[in-house]
Amino acid sequence: MAAEETIVSVAGGTGIGLVPLLRQVAPFAALFGLAALLPLTHNAYFGLVIGRAAVYWILVSGLNLVVGFAGQLALGWVALLTVGAYTTSVLAAGTALPAISPFLALGAAAAVGAVAGVVVGLPALRLRTFYFAMSTFGFATIVTQIALAWRSVTGGGIGVIGPVFGGPFGSTWGFYYFCLGGAVLATWLSGNVARSRFGRGLLAIRDAEVAAEASGVFKPGLLVLVFLFAGATAGVSGGLFASLQTYITPDAFTFDLSLLFFIAILIGGRGSILGPLLSTVLLTLLPEVAAPLVAWSTFLYAALLLVIVLAVPGGIANLLDFASRKPLETGRIIRPDVSALPVLLSGHAAERQLSFEGVTLAFGGVRAIDGLSFTVEPAAVHGLIGPNGSGKTTVLNVISGYYRPGEGSVRLGERELAPGAAHSRAAAGVGRTFQTPRIVGEASVLANVMIGGTTRGRGTFLEAVFSLPRHRREEAALRERALLALKAVGLEQLAQVRADRLQHSELRFLEIARALMPEPSLLLLDEPAAGLAPDEIALLGGLIIAISRAGVAVLLVEHHTDLVFGVCENITVLNLGRELTHGTPAEIVAHQDVIDAYLGS
Amino acid sequence: MPISEAEPLLVVRGLVAGYGKLHVLGGIDLVVGKAELVAVLGPNGAGKSTLLGAIAGLVPRQAGSAHFAGRDLAGMGPKDTVRLGIGHVIQDHRVFTRLSVHENLLLAGYDLPRTAHRARIEEMYALFPEIAEKRNQPASALSGGQQQMLAVAQGVVRKPALLMLDEPSAGLSPVLVDRVLAVAAALRAEGCSVLLVEQAVQKALGWADRVLALAGGRIVLEAATGGPDLAQRLKNAYFGGSEAAA
Predict the structure, then answer these.
(1) How many other CB atoms sit within 10 Å of the CB of residue B129?
(2) The complex's ipTM?
């Protein structure tokens, strides 16, 4: 019942409905509400511990976007805490420059942290997984060594006094509320990013990088933005950390601390905000709970950690995801509603022809495509068939910019599609699906389709961070459009379901919905019928024809000959990277070479 | 229910399987005889892949029994069923993309006697010359369809007593679908049994001895191939659920 309610309210309104919004916000409100009541206990020790958890969370909230969302293993993020702590302390104490207000110093720490975040993060554009993790670890060591060696400014091993925030935040509980306020702000800001097209882009980079590019997500640009953000929150966290410690030395920034931040995100669950928040609090509290056992405290801490990891393999977020444990209706039927297509594809700039001209592509000595030319007319379906390994998918990969052809050109309308530059295709009017569906399994079906609308967003990253009106309007429009695309392919009722719970055949239709989001002039379909039942193939055929009728040029790679001969006006037959023949379905069926090489008797 | 005349190799009774509280299969009775090719058809989500998974021990068997060559499969995982002689080629060409084609085939039969294994691999290359050409290249260099060929070859190379193929035709050209199904039929001629899950209904009917239709986790139709009205009965089974009229 609850799920239905959600869907109805989403479909009816322009933004997120009120009830699900409350449901999303409630756990955060409860958590921060409880923390706000803590001073009533008059227990300064609790205040210190929870205050520290709040400070850690400010850092983790940003790092969460890097690790949990974008999937980048930034292991040595303590380096940015160090940078922020020293920047704030040094500026407030005036050891290098004239002393400034600690609040200004905190702002400076955010700026310095942001820049340092990009510096630490840059290797991620080239290095993957563990290699990137190692590079962040190296940076952490360098920062500690500089803090030790630059005595005149940092005090070296003796250290420097942490900033004291005056005014209402001078008292113990005053500062506690300051940190808590920071934590609330960090939660809101990182939540805004996570729910924006930027957050969805990060998930896509993590789980389906190729599809992310095809949807117009520009990985380097997006990562730089998120490293800026994560660096800034870490800088602020460092400044507050220094004040909480009252006195900082390089020893305060241990690798254990860096591990804590990282593990908090792992235990919390990838792609969640509530999960990492809970686990940050948990990981800060655990050593305190274990402390009375003195000698055994580290042992107990480690044991508890193991228990948590073993008991909750998918992370806390998974544990709290009650909706995904309800069984889905079985025997679901995909019901495309092609009447939604004209609206969905009404505004596309112009009907454009695809010209694939004299393209040659060699891998080493092997010519995967060998001087191939063909055109696809707007509002027509063009089939590309041929034996396995004849180069069909390679042709699609050249058009969508994953491969750079050695010779020849690819033009859509008057414009040449830049060789390479896969991320430019969505904006240029090319949409595509993949042979094996590439989706973000942990995100909802709706979010997956919205990834396809990345290039429609005009709002800047800052507008998303602060959830400004233009950004909110765009999100609402994108949401509505994604629901319309889902309606067109017949998956509307599954909009809120996690995408990894869908059947294989439903994923194929999901990919089509995603590809339609940017209003493409050209749609590339790579074996959309593979794994589909006969009745589903018939539905797919109807959908493909309807999409082409709306003015889209469709290039279809497929082995189901009934489908190909049923929907295509023209067919090119490939063999060994060359054109074997081309013609209408009737001509192709009767062609002896095609029968020998491909169709069989 | 028509009883298979051949000596039974696999006997499944009242099999319930699924994940946690979710029962995907609701009581399946199935007999596969020696040297018999049985096709399992049905709409997406009917439980076809789950059935193969439950036999192989990949999906928990929650109730009912499965016997293979007289041995009870209760408590056996995929490792054990492979040792017994059940081969399972799962959906979506799961080959090891960083290993070479040849290494993939070596891995598929790693516990076979060495000389026999070599000979079997050469047979696979003879059946699929497309992948023989690329035997020393990483499997990632194969096209999607060629990876599917390799996956089938990995299943066939062991020459298991029972080969279970999950949609082997996905992503293959029509000629190749015929070739893969011919390979399955050749195995049957050598005395192996084949359980074939397919969406390409017409092709599957052309090669199978017997056909089962699954819908909603139950068998709704069981028939020998070749019956005149089979296509219509299958259609009814797909859309109507239970085949009441039969």
Answers:
(1) 9
(2) 0.74
